Amino acid sequence: MLCNSAAAQGLTVPIIVDSAIPQSLTVVPGDPVEGERIARDMTNASCLICHALPIADEPDPGNIAPPLDGVADRYSEGELRLRLVDPKAINPDTVMPAYYKSEGLNRVLELYAGKPIYTAQQVEDVVAYLMTLREAP
After folding, report:
1. Alpha-carbon distance 60 to 20, whole Å?
2. Are 70 and 79 in contact (CB under 8 A)?
């Protein structure tokens, strides 16, 4: 669980249950089209920095982390939400940044100091997009 002072900053304080955050961070459902745009946005910590996405016209996917094609077949919505919010809750040694957590972090770019990389709605949009990434039948 995130620090209580996150609530003071107006951030939703998610509850972790069985390596997942089962409840949405927002009342508005995630938009997978907006989620894809966010995941590809190289001006704001794009997923493409480390991951390959199954996007035919993507010129420079990352290769540091696992490819995300079929990710919805491997993880639940809640598991993906936790991976975006606080990946160190799953793997303390990961280099993946916490996209929603804003406290207790190390080596944070000044641009993101004391605030999350993604808003709660952006997290939900990216999760909605990732849930569309299924293996071909």
Report:
1. 30
2. no
Cα angle value 76/11/7 (rounded, 5°):
120
Side-chain half-sphere exposure of 32, counting CA atoms within 13 A: 8
Three-state SS for 52-89 is: CCCCCCCCCCCCCCCCCCCHHHHCCHHHHHHHHHCHHH
Tokens describing residue 47: 């997923």
DSSP secondary structure letter of residue 107: S
Residue 2: what residue type? L
Rounded to whole angstroms, the Cα distance separating 17 from 79 reads: 9
Where are the domains positioned within the chain? 5-130
What pTM, to 2 d.p., does this model score?
A: 0.84
Q: What is the pLDDT of residues 93-133, one digit of tens each?
A: 988 888 888 776 666 667 777 778 899 999 999 999 999 99
Give the homologous superfamily in CATH for domain 5-130.
Cytochrome c-like domain (1.10.760.10)
From the CB of residue 84, how many other CB atoms can be counted at a distance below 10 Å?
25
Closest to 120 in 3D by CA, of 52, 37, 21, 40: 21
- What 3-state class would DSSP assign to 25? coil
